[in-house]
Amino acid sequence: MSPVTRSDTTIFDLELVQVNGNTIPIHMNTKAASIGGRSYQLVNFMFSDVSQNVTMNDNDPVGKLSRDQYSTIVEKSNDGVVLIYDLKVKFVNSKVLNITGYDRDEVMGSDFFKLISPGDRSTLMKLYQKILHKDKNVRDRYDTFLISKYGKNIPVEITVSFIEFNMVPAVMIIFRDISDKFKAKKAIGRKLNLEHTISSITSLFIAPDGIDVAINKALEKIGLLCECDRVGMFMLCQDGFVADNTNEWCGKGVLCHKEELQKIPVSIIPWIMEQLSKGQVVFVTDVGKLPSQASKEKDLFMKKGIRSFISFPIYIDSKFAGFICLYNVSDCEEWDENELTTMQMIMGIIGMAIERNLNEESLKTYAYQLAEANYQLESLDRMKDEFLANLSHELRTPLNVIKGFGGLMSEERFGKLDERQRKAMDAVMRNTTILIELVESLLYITSVQADMIKYSFAQINVESSLERAISLVASNIEKKRLMLKIDVKKDLPYIRGDKVYLEKVFVHLLGNAIKFTPASGTVSVFMDRTRDSLHIAIKDTGVGVASDQIPYMFHKFRQLDGSLTRKYGGVGIGLYICKHIVDAHKGKIWMESEEGTGTDIHIILPI
């Protein structure tokens, strides 16, 4: 022990002996002090921190001894230690060599900052200069990355301290490998990013600008999240024998191969396809360690420089339809099962988006086909209407001639008729009238289609129109021996309507009631006022209509079943015309019926 006195402080250099016999250099200093009026000699023991206080001088036996002892301790330290003088490495312990993979000769005398991640070199250089100048307002701890001999980034925490080397200011850096801490932190960040990515990718497909644009953005998010070189989506075609690279994202500086990867035979990756077709994720952290069954994949990927990859199956309509592959994923060996499951959820979202888009495209195609078919039908319908209109006009003239001359013959203007001739003329007149009514109906329909109906609205007495309609069908009622019941209230108000067309409605409805009511049945006519409208009802005790047919009875060309049509005749346009006329009067018409009991037709006309 050799004391050194500085002012009122005396310093002693001592050695502390450990249990194992090793010694550690320490300082002891004493200093005079006065406490409560009494004088004391304060003693302070301080373990030497060689990074700040040990002077490495080969010419000083004591310094050399201290350095050798300290070197032994430092060499066995769990932390890496590097001594830097004039930017060059003057000392490095085994821990640093173990971390980086370098030999001692490769590090000693080299530029230390070449071992530091490029992004941090400038910052640490400034820190180095401040430490050399003993700047007290400096951050001495820093997280950075060491670059290993094989180019791998190793996360470390460094502590930078001032030290004297051969009586010259130098810097000592202590490295602590924080890979586990960094991995844990990164895993937490990755999980949070996964959750965020699920949300953002889902929003991409809610209202996409286009399915390809949305998929490309989704692949970009996946690529950035997983820190991989490339993400490609492959869709199967030609019954699953080939795959097309339909979408692709590439990291910075990575060449894209989408155009080259078209119509790729899946037989070149049989092992991968087998796993994917079973719904399994193919997770390979080291292509060099692929099993023997994957020899084709191993050779192919190693030639392409692919070190690791993860492939996820894509399902559309519950069928394996393709896959998404991530190449050279950063730190993929650190992924856990939960992260893979979450990634599968993301792939499922993409698969559902593709399926929805395909369904929408199919619907668009069907809609187009339906529109085209509808256009064709409308064209045919127009042609039919034109044909009926022309036919009706062509039939009208000869039928009127037949009716005219038939009437003259029936009136015996051309001579007396015997009984047989009169019956024949009655049949001619009856059927001519039916034909004329049919032609008039067809003309009405074609006029409706062409929006050419012209109504003559005026204040009319509905009661008189109804009475005239009854008189026109009275002979048919008598022939069938039907009972006619009339309940029409008197002094009913006039309405604004077309007298001719309303009479057509009443005649047709009465004609139907007579036609479908068997002999000895009853036809009833009712009319009364209900607040601001007139209510007309024409009822019969005829065959009735099935309840499931009632909603369709006012449709064009709608009839009862074939047997009744054959028995009673008609083409199914009368009720359609009635409804169109009532609608033109801003009224309502409906049917109430029970099969085998009869039918009631109700009309409401506004006053």
* Distance N to C terminus: 130 Å
Strand content: 25-35%
* The CATH top-level class label of the largest domain: Alpha Beta
Question: Which stretches are poorly predicted, pLDDT < 50 over at least 5 residues?
Answer: 1-7, 40-65
Report on the structure:
Strand 15 (309-316) and strand 16 (319-327) form a beta hairpin. The chain has helices spanning 61-75, 94-100, 104-107, 118-132, 179-204, 211-226, 270-277, 295-303, 337-410, 419-449, 462-479, 499-515, 562-568, 574-584; strands at 4-6, 9-17, 23-35, 38-47, 55-56, 80-85, 88-92, 141-147, 153-165, 168-177, 230-237, 242-250, 264-265, 282-284, 309-316, 319-327, 458-460, 483-488, 495-497, 522-530, 533-540, 588-594, 598-606. The protein has four domains: 1-48, no CATH class; 56-177, 2-Layer Sandwich (Beta-Lactamase); 184-356, Beta-Lactamase; 454-606, Histidine kinase-like ATPase, C-terminal domain (Heat Shock Protein 90, 2-Layer Sandwich). The radius of gyration is 52 Å and the shape is rod-shaped. Strands 5, 6, 7, 8, 9 and 10 form a six-stranded mixed β-sheet that branches. It has 14 helices and 23 strands. With 607 residues, it is α+β, with helices and mostly antiparallel strands. Residues 390-607 form the Histidine kinase domain. Residues 88-135 form the PAS domain.
